[in-house]
Amino acid sequence: MVILSIGQNRIEPVLLPITKGEKHELLVLKDEKQISLDKDAKPTQSIALVWSDMPLCIEHVHPYILGVLPKGIEVKALEQKLQVQSIKMMDTMKDQVKFIVHDNMTLVASHTQVYKLEPRGYDIQVGRLVQLKHFELALEIAELIKETEEDRKMRRIEILRRYAFYLFTQHKFEQSLKIYLEIKEDPVNVISLYPHLLPSELRATVTQPLPAAPPVLTGDDLKKGTEHLISYLTQIRYQVQQDIQQPSVGNSDMMIAQVTTIDTTLLKCYIKTGNNTLIGSLVRLPDNHLHLTESERVLRNEEKFQELVQLFRTKGKHSKALELLHQFHKGPTGPLSGVWPTIDYLQNLTKDHIDLILKYSKWVLKLNPDEGIKIFTEEIGEVENLPRGKIYDHITACAPQLTIPYLEHIIHRWSDKTPKFHNILILIYKKQVEDRLPKYLQMTKGRPRAKAGEEPDELGLLRSKLLNFLQSSQYYEPEALISNFPPDDLFEERALLLGHLGQHDVALAIYAHVLHDPKLAEDYCHRIYDPENEENKEVYLSLVKMYFHPPSLTKLGIRLPKRPDPERNVE
Predict the structure, then answer these.
(1) Is the overall model pTM greater than 0.90, yes or no?
(2) Which of 168, 406, 418, 470 is 20 to 30 A from 384 (CA-CA)?
């Protein structure tokens, strides 16, 4: 790439060695163009510095490069290539001009003239450069001011703050916000540059005065600026979250207030840019610091009701979330319609919220019992740990048809050993069997009854469940149940209860002399026999005695209307 063309007015270029910190460079001037080379003769900058005319000589006075031109002196910033000052001279300068630099004084001398150049104080230069919006040069000169490190730091921050604001007014959002991030500007001040992002009460707390009114952003500029603000706030949020986790760093209340403003602004930015995925992610964050009232207002205005429900969930405002779900369950097909959003919500509440669960499950149980029961039976830890006594009472009151499915689930699926639940399930089975038994007996009048549990339709199914449960469960209380069973029917069930009470003689009498079923009697003996148990080891002997010496059924509490006591059965 050609940086310097071959001049026609000067045969040889001007060479000037300079020192920049610990680096040594060589300035090469050819006609009006000047470049800087490193020790390997490679250009240190891609663009040449251009003078308005061919300098007669040049001199480096950090951070400036001075050039004497035929009609005056130009002062330029070496790094920024800015023309800082132009000094006209009374007479045209000829060749044989040179600079003489001593301490803080610079002389320009020829055979006939001498000019003294005396710089103004650095602080004055910095102020003037900031006014001219030459911020990078102002920062460079500010480093030359003799002051304490703290004052130097504060001066630099103020220059950068003004630089960042200037870049913002030029819609250079990325560069602007990068500087704000560097100087750790209060995010509230940065957010205030954008229209309608800060609530009025927060806008009134902005303490950092602006050099001018911020630009009014619209259209693509607003979208672009908002996208860069999201990136800025995300970085700030991470830093503040890290600080909050370290109690020794700063004021925790102040930091929480700050991250609350950040999160709430991020939500508004996501909405403005139409990023629904990030909206959902933010409201679902367990550690989000969204301002509830302001966020609710924004989400309602934008009809983001699904996200509002999630916000209520993460903020622990379960009543508000469940009210909203109930409000929208009849709406058109959508994420909040139907019973399942409420079912899912309730399934994930812990036992501490049992009153809420019971309250808001009522309408679900009444509207869709088959799905509603899953609020209390889903294979989720939170559901399994709910207080089952309260749930049973609730289901009995709201949807009694679900009591059997609920009890069967907690007993058979979750292995609940509570005697109360086992007792209740047995009594419910019995009640339903008894409700259906008269109709069955009417149908079979004059014909033998089917074996217990093999009756047709629901009667056989329910009685089979009852018999199996009486035989398999070890946790019901037979002494509390047996008085509920009729003395003149359901003999198979009575025999099982008697067996659990250890009254094997009575149970065997039922099998042998009431049911006349030796197979059931033998099966009973097989189940009960235990050679190590005093009560059970002679059960087979009891059965033999039962056949040789039939007992009085009446004395055993068994009532068989119009049927005499059994005869000996020794065949």
Answers:
(1) no
(2) 470
